[in-house]
Amino acid sequence: MFIMSEDSQRTQGRDAQSSNIMAGKAVAESVRTTLGPRGMDKMLVDSGGDVVITNDGATILNEMDIEHPAAQMIVEVSDSQEEEVGDGTTTAAVLAGNLLGEAEDLIEQDVHATTIVEGYHEASEIALEAIAEQVNEADVDDEILRQVAESCMTGKGTGGLTAESLAETVVDAIRHVDTDAGVARDNVTVHTQIGASSNATELVPGIIVDEEPAHDGMPSEVEDASIAILDVELGVRTGDVDAEYAIDSIDQLNAAIDAEEGELEGYAETVAESGADVVFTTEDVNDRVANALANEGVLVFEGLGDSDARQVASATGARRVGDLDDLEESDFGSADRIHTETYGDDDLAFVEGGAAAETVTVFVRGGTEHIVDELERAIGDALDVVATALESGEVVPGAGATEIAIADKIRQEAAGIEGRKQLAVTAFADAVDIIPRTLAANTGRDPIDVLVDLRAAHESEGRAGLITSGDEVTIDDPFEHGVVDPADVKREAVESATEAATMIARIDDVIAAE
């Protein structure tokens, strides 16, 4: 009796576990060398020849053409880490891969997968306790936030800018959107523009829209602007069906032309008389209407995408209007200043101040597309981790110090756990060691020697990390050197890596349809 299709492929038992674990380990290994301030970059080339150069774990894994379902789970770990806290994607992926490697060794020793899962979950709870013990007791002020941002961006592609100078911009942006209700992270956007040194990167108190005026005669700058947002085409109305009209005389032609002119003039008069200084519309604007509005000194931007229209509405407080006859002053938004700037072949509209000041934009400049793309990723991650640190108020030492503390506490607690589950708990601690070992390897140091030194320093000092400063690598307290991470980044990495590793380790049967 056939239960499955004859074309189905089935892998069971140790073969299935080995295949899945091997796939997960391979994916984790692909990003391991990018970890830390001395991490290397990856060049990813797709089938169309497009190139991405980055050391961002989530970007690398998403750009890779990964088909194996178990390997895809590691990618999901990285995606989850990116979505929840914005950083630590490589840490989470590498930890998940090493947990799988330790699980493979235990399975070969005839430790049941369920026992491994139970031990890993117990160890992850101990790890969370260790993270809580490492939280800095000092209040998270601007200096600590700057250290969080700088630690996040160190080693990433920041062009001619230092992580330190970018950190100031990142902290200013997050402080700008810090409200009594929490950090409005969505009110900080990043806009990239090729054509200048990365040193030209700046913080804009408002938003930037990739649009140009609808007419050359319109003003390039409007102060104390009243802003209308329309979903209306300012042109001659056309029907939804094809129709032909027979004109038998010159009088009829003139009448048709006059009617059309009157309709267009009506649009221009309605907008001008409404009191709006600046109009954004998602539809087209007829040249004659644009010319008339230019003569009235109204600045118009046409053909906005829906996302841009929503952004302008959110930033300025304007309400989108779908019928010109419904346009009222109460629908207007406001801004202190709207002006247009030209960068090479691109025109940008800057909406600054007033209601728009509730939103800020990091205006990223760079000489090439690869530079601005990597800068955008680095700044985006830094914005996320600073927002996370500010909201939680908890930071822990970076540079591998927290992982050393986690592994030490797990080994201490493992002594009190009975049965084979103790093996899994201890294996979890061994897996966590991959983070400081990788940091050491990426700085050119011997991983084993560094791990021994870190453990000894942790025992004597209570906190020890691998500090990189220029060409010098030392073991010291990361807090003393400003190397800090949000506690939530570490928690999320432990939880997501544990969840993925235990899910993969429990799979002993793979059924694939052809």
Automatic annotation (TrEMBL):
InterPro entries the UniProt entry points to: Chaperone_TCP-1, Chaperonin_TCP-1_CS, Cpn60/GroEL/TCP-1, GroEL-like_apical_dom_sf, GROEL-like_equatorial_sf, TCP-1-like_intermed_sf, TCP-1_chaperonin, thermosome_alpha
Domain of life, source organism: Archaea
Entry's family note: Belongs to the TCP-1 chaperonin family.
Name of the protein in question: Chaperonin Cpn60/TCP-1
Positions of the UniProt region annotated as Disordered: 1-20
GO molecular function: ATP binding; ATP hydrolysis activity; ATP-dependent protein folding chaperone; unfolded protein binding
Pfam family, one: Cpn60_TCP1
Keywords: ATP-binding, Chaperone, Nucleotide-binding
Transmembrane annotation, as ranges: none
